[in-house]
Design brief:
An eight-stranded mixed β-sheet has the order 3-2-1-4-5-8-7-6. It has five helices and eight strands; from the N terminus they run H-E-H-E-H-E-H-E-H-E-E-E-E. About 5% of the residues have low confidence. The protein starts with about 25 loop residues before the first helix and ends with a strand. The radius of gyration is 16 Å and the shape is globular. A hairpin with a 2-residue loop joins strand 7 and strand 8. Helix content is about 25%, strand content about 25%. It has a single domain, classed as Rossmann fold (3-Layer(aba) Sandwich). It is of the alpha/beta class and about 200 residues long.
Length: about 200
């Protein structure tokens, strides 16, 4: 993997060994950031299920003001930190070493609102997509819960005009709506797809 554009263009990134973490391919990242290009400079970017950090690092390389990485797997966290250190990135980011659920449900006192949220959980973890997108769309559904009633947009997470992007497997397919999040664009590439959501 390489950084595609920006300050760290063409710099090599490491990926965790094994199959537990699936890095977003260079080609799919390029497609993603071609769409996001007008939004990235100065953006507050949330990289959920960050893995090696390739997506969030790409955002930093292209001028994002701050990236929050969320990752729970020890090997992936080690590679993420090594990638940041290898590029000499020492500021403009924070790392939450835990689950996306713990981050989303944790205390938010004084925290920033995000302009861009990217989530790429393991493809087989359908409940992670459901829980995260439903929460961001204003619901309080969580794995194991039957309550999917949309409430209000999750406070303190999405800035005005924010975009939420989910990478998933094409054959699985995501819903068009999660609470107040409505899919505005769908891009397919190989066996993967990118769903772009915004508040209705």
């Amino acid at each position: 993997m390489r950084v595609i554009a920006g300050q760290y263009r063409s710099r090599v990134l490491a990926a965790p060994a094994g199959l537990a973490t699936r890095p977003t391919s260079d080609r799919l990242r390029e497609t993603l950031f071609n769409v996001l290009a007008p939004r990235i400079a100065g953006a507050r970017f949330l990289d959920l299920y960050a893995g090696s950090g390739a997506v969030g690092i790409e955002a930093l390389s292209r001028g994002a003001a701050h990236v929050t990485f969320v990752e729970r797997a020890g090997p992936a966290l080690k590679v993420l930190r090594a990638n940041l250190a290898g590029l000499g990135i020492v500021s403009g980011f924070s790392i939450h070493a835990g689950t996306a659920t713990s981050f989303l449900s944790g205390p938010r006192g004084g925290a920033v609102e995000f302009d861009v949220v990217f989530l790429d959980p393991p493809y087989e973890a359908a409940e992670e997509y459901e829980a995260t997108l439903t929460f961001l769309g204003g619901g309080n559904w969580s794995p194991g819960s039957q309550n999917r009633d949309p409430g209000h947009p999750a406070p303190g997470f999405l800035a005005d005009g924010a975009v939420v992007i989910a990478e998933s497997r094409r054959k699985d397919g995501l819903e068009d709506c999660y609470g107040e999040l409505v899919r505005t664009r769908l891009l397919e590439q190989g066996d993967a797809e990118l769903s772009f959501y915004a508040r209705a």
